[in-house]
Amino acid sequence: MRIAVTGAGLAGVTTAYELARDGHEVIVYERHGSIAAEGSFAPACVLAPGLWLAHAAVSGLGGLDRVPAKPSAWPWVWQRWRSARQPAHGARLACLRDLAQLSLERLQAIEAAHQLEHEHHAGVMALMRAPGHAARARGLLAKHASMNLPVRWLSAEEARAIEPGLSPTLPLHGALYWPTGQTANGRQFAHALKTEALRLGARFQFQQEVTRLTPAAGGARHQVELQAERSSTDLGESGLGVSSTGATTIADEGPQTFDAVVLCSAEAASRLLAGPARPRIAWGHVHSVTAPRHIATEASETFGPRSAVLDPAAGITVGRMGDRLRVAGGAAFGTAPTRPSEPVLARLFAALEETFPGATRTARAQPWVGRQSQLVDGLPAVGRAQAAGLWLNIGHGPNAWAQTTACAQLLADQLAGRPAVFDCTTIDPARLR
Q: Is residue 171 located within the same domain as residue 64?
């Protein structure tokens, strides 16, 4: 089949790879000048099946983080919290576990098949800084023991042994630990996987935005009308620009006809779909700071984390990426600022210093703020849209690294008519109508 993919973030690149691997003719349309230029640029990329346990232990909201929201977003947030108290919420948590586990297995298979070079480290730890949070975390572990989550409880002493860079004065009453979890440089992975997708025949059309979707003759095929727009910036891994040699086209090719169109951009889905087919999306944003790790000559492992450390009470995630650290936080629902907020960045630096004192060289830090989309039940929408020929792979939000490789594989299976590895009903877009 000839398939168009809109958006070249983590979801779009992984989808393009899986579809090209199945032998389809794939063309990816991205309005910016490079891949992962928006929400996938510099978020915390953490993968741990059952990570919602950490947020549930601290927030008490059934796996939902306590995220600030502007008044305009309060009705949506209220529905989000209500969804955590519905009988189906247990099935949603199991789905989050399954997506993360499948993503981990698919990532490992892709890395082994192509020897992809990208920064990643094993191990994810969630700190419990209050006695009540620790008690709740242990209770949740016992309650959900039947889910066989790959997580174990650590005492404060055990946690400090695994992460010796933790501040000795940080209040700590234990931690949840995922030995097989991981943190990674998601954008670096996306660049490496794009190269493999190109080798399989996929094409990437940058600085082009899909402006309209109209049914072609017979209604079974869809015509995609494109409008070329030259991007004002082309941000790369360091913010200095990345070459897209051999993959960039900025000329308007005019209307194109495809057998299927996969919307991997929530913004595009919101803009291009109408009526019942349009999913209700809530927009939020998150900040991050990426900075060189402070390395001492004789004690290189005493500064910063060895892998990924979450502090749910402080609302931050600190992840190791080679010789750099990334601290992410300041998540909120509502319109994203056009540039990183200085007060939020100051809070991130303060929380990082409290957790891992002296971990980074802040003078060389790279700040970032990006939009994230979420659906009301916290799950992605993956599968056939209401309109013929249209498919969705959106709504990953803060879980993009833990879901996109799995969702891309599941979508490719559906398009090929193969049986899925698990029941996709929970993430079917039809549930949102």
A: yes
**Residues 397, 356 share a domain:** no
* Same-domain status, 258 and 404: yes
391 and 334 together in one domain? no
Output 161-164 pairs: Cβ under 8 A, ≥24 positions apart: 162/123, 162/125, 162/306, 163/125, 163/305, 163/306, 163/309, 164/301, 164/302
Report the number of distinct structural domains present in the chain: 2
Residue whose pair of structure tokens reads 């299927």 in the numeric block: 260
Do 55 and 178 share a domain, yes or no? Answer: yes
Domain holding 37: CATH number?
3.50.50.60
Q: How far is CA 37 from the centre of its chain?
A: 13
**46-47 and 152-154: which strand pairing?**
unpaired
The domain in which residue 167 lies consists of 46-184+282-374
- Is 104 in the same domain as 195? no
- The series of mean pLDDT values per 10 residues for the chain, 433 residues long, is 95 98 96 93 95 89 67 71 71 91 95 91 96 96 93 97 95 97 95 97 93 70 56 41 38 75 93 82 92 66 85 93 92 88 94 91 88 90 88 94 97 93 89 81
pLDDT at 421: 82
Adjacency order of strands within the sheet including 222-228: 208-215, 222-228, 256-258
What are the structure tokens assigned to 129, written together? 């800084």
Residues 6 or more apart whose Cβ sits within 8 Å of residue 338: none
DSSP string, 152-221: EEE-HHHHHHH-TTS-TTS----EEEEEEEEEE-HHHHHHHHHHHHHHTT-EEEETEEEEEEEE-TTSSS
Q: 197 and 239 share a domain?
A: yes
